[in-house]
Amino acid sequence: MLVKALTTASCGHLIIVRPQDLLNNLIGGTEKQTSAIFEIAQAKSEESQHPTVLFFDEIDGILGKPGHNDSKAEINIIKIMVHKRQGFIKWLKKEEKVN
Questions:
Q1: The predicted structure's pLDDT at residue 25
Q2: Which residues of the chain, if any, have pLDDT below 70?
Q3: What residues contact residue 53 under an 8 Å CB cut-off, 6+ apart?
Q4: Which residues does 94 contact at the CB level (< 8 Å), separation at least 6?
Q5: Does residue 24 sit in helix, strand or coil?
Q6: Tens digit of pLDDT for each residue in 88-98?
Q7: Is the N end or the C end of the chain the one with fewer CB atoms within 10 Å?
Q8: What is the rounded CA–CA span in Å between residue 21 and residue 98?
Q9: Cα-Cα-Cα-Cα dihedral of 41, 43, 49, 53, to 10°?
Q10: Where are the domains of the chain?
Q11: Which region holds residue 17: left if phi is over 0, alpha if psi is between -120 and 50, else beta?
């Protein structure tokens, strides 16, 4: 697996996220799980000072096809992913300035 090789080469961590790891029948549960995954990844990166790679396996099982059956949960998951990614990029830029 290419992602595993890249993660190992960078001395980083790999978190594989499958649809069953995120999908939750409770209202807001999927969104909470999505945020939690990003928080775990950030905590691992800060603790070890090495990157953490999030690999979303079968992302179409989580989000479905664009434009088809877009549920509120799917839209919220996309928003969370974009928001967390932008926060992580800001954190990386801040770390680069420190180093």
A1: 73
A2: 1, 61, 64-70, 87-92, 94-99
A3: 3, 6, 7, 12, 13, 14, 15
A4: none
A5: coil
A6: 666 667 666 66
A7: C
A8: 35
A9: 0
A10: 2-98
A11: beta
Match 């990844």 to its residue by tokens. Answer: 41
Given the candidates 3.40.630.40, 3.40.50.300, 3.20.20.80, 3.30.420.270, the CATH classification of the domain at 2-98 is: 3.40.50.300
* Coil, strand or helix at 18: coil
Q: What is the DSSP string of 41-75?
A: HHHHHHHHTS-EEEEETTHHHHH-STTSS--HHHH
Sign of the CA dihedral 18, 62, 32, 35? positive
Name the token pair of 41. Answer: 């990844």
Please give the structure tokens belonging to residue 14.
């790999």
